[in-house]
């Protein structure tokens, strides 16, 4: 098994050998470009994004490993509300108890789903948890001290969007949206019409059973951290490139207009990939440029869907499910923020 994996890796390394002469030829130009101000800014932005998100991802995988130890399938089934409305409401408020950033939320929810949590509750928790929690509430209040209505509207819209999408998942998703493990699976019913796959033995998602000791705990946490962090690195790198080589003034010029301002702020939130604990301070810089609605679309969409979290979602859920989830988030955030702007 290990030999096959090494051979597969070798097939990717061989083409890199042909790049060595090219890099040697371009060495003087590469050195000059690497030391340029633009690349220095890109490296700074990349490191800041990664360092901002990595602690929350680490917290998430540590909690995931603890759940592997102490949370059983039977416990999840007992704690899951039988009524779907109650399940959505409880999941929407779980962030108050577990204030985890969106980077750490995905490994935790993946573990809970493997333990038997229904998808509609898991999706609601993923979407609402990064926003509806005391840390983000306090940060938003500090960013907009003279406009508390922005904080209230952010919490309310995030909860409403998460609950609505949880309801849609309950009604329309009838199969396990997680990527299938390689092991043989059995089906466990978690709510009417839904069947969830449970692994028998060793799987690709590190669901194998270890002895309950500290060594196995850290091995499991390390495996999960490496598995999720590679998507964080790719997302942070591409985000840093976009922020470096596309000026903010050019982006703002695209946001003039009643609809374009929403599209710009939502796209800006997706590209920036900021942590939900700090994005309110970035949004406050646009408070004199955009109305309440576009600001809300930035504050609500970013924690639910950005570039790095999209890659992490794709590593956890099936591609078709992630596409449908992304379209639903975008549509509901746009409609909700536009409606609040009209009313307020």
Overall strand count: 2
N- to C-terminal separation? 61 Å
Average pLDDT level = 77
Q: Determine Rg (CA atoms, Å).
A: 22 Å
Biggest sheet, spatial arrangement of strands: 1-2
Largest sheet report: 2 strands, antiparallel
Q: Report helical residue fraction.
A: over 70%
Q: What general outline do the C-alpha atoms trace? A: globular
Number of DSSP helices?
17
Classify the beta-strand content into a percent band.
Answer: under 5%
Question: What is the H-and-E element order?
Answer: HHHHHHHHHHEEHHHHHHH
Low-pLDDT runs: 182-210
Structural class: mainly alpha
What features would you describe in this structure?
This protein is mainly alpha-helical and 344 residues long. Helix content is 71%, strand content 4%. It has 17 helices and two strands. The model is unreliable at 182-210 (pLDDT under 50).
């Amino acid at each position: 098994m290990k030999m096959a994996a090494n051979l597969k890796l070798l097939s990717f390394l061989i083409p890199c050998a042909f790049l060595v002469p090219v890099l040697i030829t371009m060495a003087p130009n590469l050195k000059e470009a690497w030391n340029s101000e633009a690349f220095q800014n890109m490296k700074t932005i990349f490191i800041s994004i990664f360092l901002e998100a990595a602690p929350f991802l680490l917290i998430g995988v540590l909690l995931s490993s603890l759940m592997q130890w102490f949370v059983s399938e039977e416990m999840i089934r007992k704690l899951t509300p039988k009524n779907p409305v109650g399940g959505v409401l409880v999941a929407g408020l779980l962030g108050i108890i577990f204030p985890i950033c969106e980077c750490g939320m995905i490994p935790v929810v993946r573990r809970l789903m493997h333990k038997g949590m229904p998808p509609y509750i898991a999706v609601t928790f993923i979407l609402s948890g990064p926003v509806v929690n005391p840390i983000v509430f306090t940060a938003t209040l500090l960013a907009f001290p003279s406009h508390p209505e922005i904080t209230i509207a952010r919490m309310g819209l995030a909860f409403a969007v998460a609950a609505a999408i949880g309801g849609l998942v309950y009604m329309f998703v009838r199969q396990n949206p997680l990527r299938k493990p390689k092991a043989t699976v059995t089906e466990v019913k978690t709510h009417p019409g839904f069947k969830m796959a449970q692994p028998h033995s060793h799987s690709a998602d590190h669901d194998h059973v270890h002895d309950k000791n500290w060594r196995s705990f850290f091995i499991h946490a390390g495996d999960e951290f490496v598995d999720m962090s590679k998507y964080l690195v790719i997302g942070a790198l591409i985000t840093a490139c976009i922020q470096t080589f596309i000026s903010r003034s050019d982006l703002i010029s695209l946001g003039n207009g009643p609809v374009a301002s929403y599209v710009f702020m939502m796209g800006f939130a997706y590209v920036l990939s900021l942590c939900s604990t700090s994005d309110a301070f970035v949004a406050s810089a646009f408070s004199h440029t955009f109305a309440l609605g576009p600001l809300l679309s930035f504050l609500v969409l970013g924690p639910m869907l950005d570039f790095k979290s999209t890659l992490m979602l794709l590593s956890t859920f099936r591609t078709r499910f992630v596409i449908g989830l992304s379209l639903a988030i975008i549509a509901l955030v746009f409609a909700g923020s536009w409606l609040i702007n009209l009313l307020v």
